[in-house]
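hiii so um. not sure if this is the right channel but i have a protein structure encoded as tokens and i wanna go backwards to a sequence. like what aa goes where. can anyone help
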């Protein structure tokens, strides 16, 4: 049996510097117990008995796979279909006008930090419900995350029963296939085909790859992991890939920094790019 030791302050400082340098995630001293609790299982899996040994493994891993395991462990991939109800109510009223004012021939939406896929699939279902079929065909949804593992889960579009229980019954019948043997539900192919999943690091990724602007960006409950300079940098990048009038949706517990001059608040958690 592995004789696992407690996380020391020195080990914690090494780990949080590595995480900040490679993922932009800022860990305060108050997160030390959380990091130990979340990483203890990973140490047991790898047969390691100290966090310094784990840190050395991280540094020597040229593939970057262990960084993904670390990020998955310390971040909370908790999401659900159609969370942030107020945002969907706003969109239901305004989506036709927003679509009419799109900046491209296509209507481009980015789910940034998409986790296990509930957010981009909610966007797809919302568009199917609230836009004419001819308009839906012009919609393109990009969904990105830093974790390859979570993207594989998202791409499969498969969820357990409790994930779909809050959805209206007609949504479940229209947009999911039920596997009675495993009691799981899979997003139907025509919905999955509306979403393009890609690996992308919001802090260190190359935003110049986005040659066409987005009309809406969803980045909810992601910036809570970043410090103020990192958040400001990300907000500036979002502003660069949104046209005037483009919309940014963030989590209800988040807000843009006070010195922000790039967006105006439409209502809490919904911001418009200033022209």
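sure thing!! here u go:
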């Amino acid at each position: 049996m592995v004789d696992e030791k407690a996380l020391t302050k020195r080990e914690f400082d090494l780990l949080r510097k590595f995480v900040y340098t490679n993922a932009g995630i800022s860990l305060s001293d108050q997160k030390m117990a959380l990091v130990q609790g979340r990483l203890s299982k990973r140490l047991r899996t790898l047969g390691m008995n100290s966090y310094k040994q784990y840190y050395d493994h991280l540094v020597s891993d040229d593939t970057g796979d262990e960084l993904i395991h670390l990020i998955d462990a310390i971040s909370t991939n908790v999401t659900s279909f159609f969370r942030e109800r107020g945002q969907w109510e706003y969109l239901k009223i305004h989506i036709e006008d927003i679509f009419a004012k799109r900046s491209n021939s296509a209507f481009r939406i980015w789910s940034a930090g998409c986790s296990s896929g509930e957010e981009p699939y909610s966007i797809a279902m919302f568009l199917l419900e609230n836009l004419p079929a001819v308009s839906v065909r012009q919609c393109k949804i990009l969904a990105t995350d830093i974790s390859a593992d979570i993207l594989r889960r998202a791409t499969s579009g498969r969820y357990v029963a409790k994930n779909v229980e809050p959805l209206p019954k007609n949504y479940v019948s229209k947009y999911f296939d039920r596997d009675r043997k495993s009691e799981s539900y899979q997003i139907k192919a025509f919905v999955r085909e509306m979403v393009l999943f890609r690996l992308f690091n919001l802090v260190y990724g190359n935003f110049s790859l986005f040659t066409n602007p987005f009309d809406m960006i969803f980045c909810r409950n992601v910036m809570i992991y970043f410090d103020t300079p990192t958040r400001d940098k990300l907000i500036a990048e979002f502003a660069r890939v949104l046209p005037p009038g483009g919309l940014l949706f963030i989590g209800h517990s988040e807000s843009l920094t006070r010195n922000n001059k790039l967006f105006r608040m439409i209502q809490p958690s919904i911001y418009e790019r200033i022209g």
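oh and Residues 85-100 form the longest helix (16 residues).
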